[in-house]
Amino acid sequence: MMTDAALDQPRIVILISGTGSNMLAIADAIKAGQIDAMVAGVICNRPDAAGIQYAKDRDLPVEVIDHKNFTSREDFDFAMMKAIDGFAPDLVVLAGFMRILTPDFVRRYEGRMVNIHPSLLPKYHGLHTHQRAIDAGDSEHGVSVHYVTEELDGGPVIAQAVVSIDVEDDADSLKRKVQQQEHVLYPIVVKWCTEGRLLMKNGVATLDGKPIPKSGLQLSNQ
User: Fold this and answer.
1) In sequence order, what are the beta bridge partners of 11?
2) Domain definitions of the chain by residue range
């Protein structure tokens, strides 16, 4: 039976497409008492994703909506919205959800939907960010958490974590470095959201009522 305290907790829905490592980081932070919230549901668009079983192993409610079963992005997103709304979330968290969202979907959850992206935005929108940073000769790379808007990877940046790019790094080793920072950064931002400290007003991210710089808050370094 759900306690009164649990009923009052902010509700999070997490969208995944793969292993869901950031989903696990958030769920583990909740279990450890670092975030006072609950994962109301996990939704995955790939029935073969490893994250489905990982979520079930933690007794998280899981719903699978295979995007291949829909003839249009609009139809798929409508099904997603119906599923998300069924969990009545206060916050929607994209955690490796590899789908481009339609404007109607984004508008429905704008201001309460965040995403994590493996680059120091505004650098390297889209895919293959680790290799692109290496190819560009960058000395630093990292991860950004941002609000989701209709512009792909273009919403207000909330926070970033920076890692160094060493001579011996390849895309895989750099990915591992970045993921270590992701698993620290994302739970912090989710905590801010669930505490009501983090808001988006007029297209600007604010923490405790103060505007966040366009490059986001720098929370960690390596």
Assistant:
1) 38
2) 9-109, 117-222
Residues tagged active-site: 117
- The strands making up 210-211's β-sheet, listed across from edge to edge, are 198-201, 204-207, 210-211
pLDDT in tens, 133-163: 999 999 999 999 999 999 988 999 999 999 9
114 close to 194: Cβ distance less than 8 angstroms = no
CB burial of 181-217 (b: ≥16 within 10 Å; e: otherwise) equals bbbebbbbbbbbbbeeebbbeeeebbeeeeebeeebb
Would 9-109 and 117-222 be classified into the same CATH topology? yes
Token digits of residue 3: 């306690």
Topology of domain 9-109 in CATH is Rossmann fold (3.40.50)
Per-residue pLDDT tens digits for 158-170: 999 999 999 999 9
Residue 53: other Cβ atoms inside 10 A? 12
Q: What is the DSSP string of the chain?
A: ---HHHHHS-EEEEEESS--HHHHHHHHHHHTTSS--EEEEEEES-TT-HHHHHHHHTT--EEE--GGG-SSHHHHHHHHHHHHHHT--SEEEESS---PPPHHHHHHHTTSEEEEESS-TTS--SS-HHHHHHHTT-SEEEEEEEE--SSTT-SPEEEEEEEE--TT--HHHHHHHHHHHHHHHHHHHHHHHHTT-EEEETTEEEETTEEPPTT-EEEE--
User: Which CATH code fits 117-222?
Assistant: 3.40.50.170
